[in-house]
Amino acid sequence: MDNTVEKQENIRKGWDGISRFFRANSIWMLMYCTGCCAIELPQAMTSRYDMERLGMGPMATPRQADVLLITGYLSLKTLRRIIYAYEQMSTPKYLVAFGPCTLNGGIYYDSHAVINRLDQYLPIDVYIAGCMPKPEAVMNGFNDLIGMIKRKEANGWKKYEQNKDWYRKNQIQALGELRIKDEFHE
Ligand code: SF4
Questions:
Q1: How far is the CA of 34 from the centre of ligand 1 (A)?
Q2: Reported confidence tier of residue 115, pLDDT bands at 50, 70, 90
């Protein structure tokens, strides 16, 4: 390989590693507290588990947030707001889903008002188990996410971009009209 090309490649790799390090260690979360799982977040945030030592903190707006937390079941009305919030976040962006309600509807399985599988509408990077999840499980999930970001494995946002027509079709099927302008939705 030509010396200059090799140098440029090394610089690119170095910069990529640095940006991933900082990205993984300064995660700002948009907490859309949809269901009862959210009650475990104060535990994880306060002195006992202190998630801020991992560089994690709350963020009030989607445009500045890195992670969207879905803390439990989603009604159709809430799903619409979640989709709008996710669309406003800049990439790379990550989605963490709490509890079985986000996996299969949980105790609301087959309800007319609650969705069963969140992954039909948005890409999930990490699931946190438990109904409701213990703070230890919440911290474990965040640690998993940090590791995935460092290893370049938290790629839900890319999957969303690549399969946008499929996601959009499901979203429109569930919700009808969406106030989003893109090539998949007129
Ligand atoms: S998983 Fe359990 S605790 Fe979480 S929202 Fe569903 S019912 Fe509530």
A1: 10
A2: very high
